[in-house]
Backbone:
């Protein structure tokens, strides 16, 4: 993650989000162009919902398997979290997976997994795909391939009453920050702590938790002074806190999210890329993002391994 059902604090419970219908807009010429593009994309989709150009790139062994095990750390609402039934993974990434893989002639079985076990699980064959708000980084690209599909930053959040005010990484010296294990936020907070001490300032106390739920609870209980998570997740926690949390400063370090694909999967990443492009052209991608209120992070030009650092 730029890289989640809360039991101890009722106001942190995940809620169902209503689907927002996608409305048509724009001039008659742009509507005509959009309609033509959508019609062309739909023409390549069979009655079974398979998008032929993408399905043709799925390796035979994966096609035979039929179902892809998609791992997500379901403590990261609204991107991935446990639904009202207590076991189904829902959210932006789950919806995208269920829309995407049938286009490839496959099905998606989205399973809950601890975040820092997902990439090792992909390399060992335990999981087939990772869709869990992974920030695409050069370090992670050394282990898996990414198909980038979204853009997110990192945000700090604090208790609204009496919490510290920060403006970015440089202003967290001497503070206690709660993060999820294996995330970019953990790396950035720990790196900043070293910068603080090298400048003669107090170190950052970085509290690392196995999931985002625990990090959120550390802030709510007063154990931590700041929460640090991806911007859509931080904004959602603030919204669901009903005034108990506040966003602290602006979003920083914007970077792409990527669908993690094992390097041993042949051309599966290219098939996924074509499938994503199809979801964009037909409007399904935008509709899913709007459903979860994260449309500001839309990336309408998906790409493979687009990390810059």
Residues:
């Amino acid at each position: 993650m730029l890289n989640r059902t809360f039991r101890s604090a009722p106001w942190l419970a995940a809620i169902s989000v209503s689907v927002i219908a996608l409305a048509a807009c724009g001039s008659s010429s742009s509507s005509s162009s959009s309609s033509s593009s959508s019609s062309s994309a739909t023409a390549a989709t069979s009655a079974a919902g398979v998008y032929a150009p993408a399905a043709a790139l799925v390796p035979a062994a994966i096609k035979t398997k039929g179902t892809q095990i998609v791992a997500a750390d379901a403590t990261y609402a609204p991107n991935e979290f446990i639904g009202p039934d207590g076991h189904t993974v829902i959210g932006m990434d789950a919806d995208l997976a269920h829309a995407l893989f049938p286009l490839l002639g496959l099905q998606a079985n989205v399973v809950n997994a601890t975040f820092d076990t997902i990439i090792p699980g992909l390399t060992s064959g335990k999981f087939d795909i990772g869709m869990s708000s992974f920030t695409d980084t050069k370090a992670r690209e050394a282990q898996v391939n990414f198909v980038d599909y979204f853009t997110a930053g990192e945000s700090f959040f604090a208790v609204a009453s009496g919490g510290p005010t920060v403006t970015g990484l440089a202003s967290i010296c001497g503070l206690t920050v709660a993060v999820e294990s294996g995330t970019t936020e953990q790396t950035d907070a720990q790196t900043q702590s070293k910068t603080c001490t090298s400048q003669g300032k107090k170190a950052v106390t970085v509290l690392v938790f196995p999931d985002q739920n625990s990090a959120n609870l550390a802030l709510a209980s007063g154990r931590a002074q700041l929460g640090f998570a991806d911007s859509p997740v931080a904004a959602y926690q603030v919204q669901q806190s009903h005034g108990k949390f506040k966003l602290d400063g602006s979003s920083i370090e914007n970077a792409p999210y990527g669908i993690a694909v094992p390097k041993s999967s042949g051309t599966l990443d290219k098939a996924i890329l074509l499938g994503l492009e199809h979801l964009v052209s037909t409007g399904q991608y935008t509709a899913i993002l709007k459903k979860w209120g994260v449309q500001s992070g839309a990336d309408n030009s998906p790409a493979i391994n687009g990390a810059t650092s």
